[in-house]
Amino acid sequence: MNRQYTQSPSRCDPLPLDVRESMGVLLRSPITSAVDEYTLIKRGISAKTYVRVARRLALPRGAITLEATLRRRLASKPARLSIDESERLLGITRVFVLASALFSDEAAARAWLHRPARHLPDADPITPVALARFDSGVRWLEDRILRTTHGVC
Q: What b/e readout covers 75-106, taking b as 16+ CB neighbours within 10 angstroms?
């Protein structure tokens, strides 16, 4: 997944277009802008997509929501994640795609997602997956990955 970043459709959009396209491939839904992300979150990511992505990223139980809640959601018709759950899955997916580009290897990115480290000052080690449960954690991880990609400390 070694790629050169291309310009996003919006000049103010901080995410490169190929990152959004890779997210879309993983989620099997076209994503070329923040509007596409919003639409996907609002609609709710399908349970089938969640199961596939969770396997590919080796997500631990509870990474998106409580296990009992997730079981009920998966059994419902139509089986879709809630807005909050969809947003969490999209955030973790975005971090995974960026890490895959940084490491040029999905397996290395997957291992990194699950490796506890001192990502936050004065805090216990935490995995990127745990950080990505929160929007602020996703933004922090994105910033760190993009800074590393571009050689900024």
A: eeeeebbeeebbbbbbbbbbbbbbbbbbbeeb
Count of positions (residues) in the chain: 153
Which residue from 55, 63, 51 is spatially nearest to 92, judged by alpha carbons?
63
The model carries a pTM of 0.83
The predicted-structure confidence for 51-93, as pLDDT tens digits, reads as follows 899 999 999 988 888 888 888 877 888 889 999 999 999 999 9
Q: Quick one: angle between helices 34-43 and 17-27, nearest 10?
A: 20
Distance CA 23, CA 20 (A): 5
What DSSP assignment string belongs to 49-64?
Answer: HHHHHHHHHTPPTTSS
Cβ atoms of 17 and 6 closer than 8 Å:
yes
